[in-house]
Amino acid sequence: MDPGHLTELIESEEYYWWHLAKRELVTEILMNVFPAPGLTIEGGTGSARNLLKFSQRGDEVIGFDLIDVKNRRSQGQKVKWVTYWNSFSLPAAIANKGRNNFLNRADTSPLSFARVSRFTNACLKSCAQIERKLIHLTGVPFGLSRVGVLVK
After folding, report:
1. Cα-flanking dihedrals φ and ψ of residue 62, to 5°?
2. Pairing assessment for the beta strands 39-43 and 60-64 based on DSSP bridges
3. Sign of the C-alpha dihedral, residues 133, 139, 89, 21?
4. Which residues contact 3 (CB under 8 A, 6 or more apart)?
């Protein structure tokens, strides 16, 4: 990985609402489903900020770069719980993708996260916190991401 990309990724995962909200959601799920200490395996580790958070709660952590749920099922792991996440920004993501397609623009940034102001970042993080509460009550029928728990 390019060191400049890694630096940008680390900075993004430290402040950007999506990374912060996702880390809070996953940490809350882990606390509810698997109290520490335990073994936490994460696929799609990025700059490993989630792994650092999980190790702070007392878990032994392992990370790898990609996860294929079908492949995990074939290895004897079962999906204990899964739902969508990040539904509130789906309309904006669809509109942005449509605009870029219409204008024939390609995403040139190695990070696919739009730059936003601190105020917007805080608002989006608040939306994600509200959605995190709803996930535990009802689940979410659609979204930009999926979150779940695999067990052996």
Report:
1. -135, 135
2. parallel
3. positive
4. none
* 93: three-class secondary structure by DSSP: helix
CA distances (Å), origin 145, targets 2, 14, 108: 25, 19, 22
Helices 17-33 and 118-138 cross at an angle (nearest 10°) of 30
Residue owning tokens 């996860």: 67
Q: Which helix (H) or strand (E) holds 68?
A: none
As a whole number of Å, the end-to-end CA separation of the chain is 31
Distance separating alpha carbons of residues 93 and 87, to the nearest angstrom: 10
103 DSSP assignment = T
Residue 62 in tokens: 């392992």
Distance, in Å, from the CA atom of 131 to the CA atom of 83, rounded to the nearest integer, reads 12
Instruction: Check pLDDT > 70 for residue 83.
Output: yes
Helix/strand/coil for 94: helix
Give the pLDDT confidence of 18-77 residue by residue, as tens digits: 889 989 988 988 888 888 888 888 877 778 888 999 999 999 988 876 545 555 555 666
Question: What letter represents residue 37's amino acid?
Answer: P
Residue ranges per domain, the chain? 3-151
pTM: 0.65
